[in-house]
Amino acid sequence: MVSGSITNELESPLEAQRVWNAFVKDGHNLLPKQVPEVFSSITFIQGDGGVGSIKQINFTDANPDFSFVKELVEEVDEEKFVYRYSHVEGGMLGKKLVSAKYEFKYTPKPEGGCVCSSVFHYETLPGVPHDESKVQEIKEKTT
């Protein structure tokens, strides 16, 4: 079993509030419209997006590894622009991973725009070898 994390940071010319609204508050509507080749639908199966909500993300055939993932919302901090969730079903859970947790933070910059930070924490199933090329592939897909 291997535990690890992948960290990314990206600067945006958009204000933190605007990025937060687009991806956290309205991402379930925005992503299937803006990236229909990847996301077929995103729906809340429990709750309305707040802590404790469960969201199901359905992928198109463009994702050959899995067709859906269910996410449990663990933190929504609208003042600090922090959003945390974990996968509870689907995705790579049970195939290669025991756990998958994500944290996104949008930090306003004094001169405008923001810094978008993400951290992906994972734990592999016993016997699954650590594959650095797969880690790099995941990192590239999330930037």
Automatic annotation (TrEMBL):
<dbReference type="GO" id="GO:0004864">
    <property type="term" value="F:protein phosphatase inhibitor activity"/>
</dbReference>
<dbReference type="GO" id="GO:0009738">
    <property type="term" value="P:abscisic acid-activated signaling pathway"/>
</dbReference>
<dbReference type="InterPro" id="IPR050279">
    <property type="entry name" value="Plant_def-hormone_signal"/>
</dbReference>
<dbReference type="InterPro" id="IPR000916">
    <property type="entry name" value="Bet_v_I/MLP"/>
</dbReference>
<dbReference type="Pfam" id="PF00407">
    <property type="entry name" value="Bet_v_1"/>
</dbReference>
<dbReference type="GO" id="GO:0005737">
    <property type="term" value="C:cytoplasm"/>
</dbReference>
<dbReference type="GO" id="GO:0006952">
    <property type="term" value="P:defense response"/>
</dbReference>
<comment type="similarity">
    <text>Belongs to the BetVI family.</text>
</comment>
<dbReference type="GO" id="GO:0038023">
    <property type="term" value="F:signaling receptor activity"/>
</dbReference>
<dbReference type="GO" id="GO:0005634">
    <property type="term" value="C:nucleus"/>
</dbReference>
<dbReference type="GO" id="GO:0010427">
    <property type="term" value="F:abscisic acid binding"/>
</dbReference>
<protein>
    <recommendedName>
        <fullName>Bet v I/Major latex protein domain-containing protein</fullName>
    </recommendedName>
</protein>
<dbReference type="InterPro" id="IPR023393">
    <property type="entry name" value="START-like_dom_sf"/>
</dbReference>
<feature type="domain" description="Bet v I/Major latex protein">
    <location>
        <begin position="1"/>
        <end position="142"/>
    </location>
</feature>
<dbReference type="InterPro" id="IPR024949">
    <property type="entry name" value="Bet_v_I_allergen"/>
</dbReference>
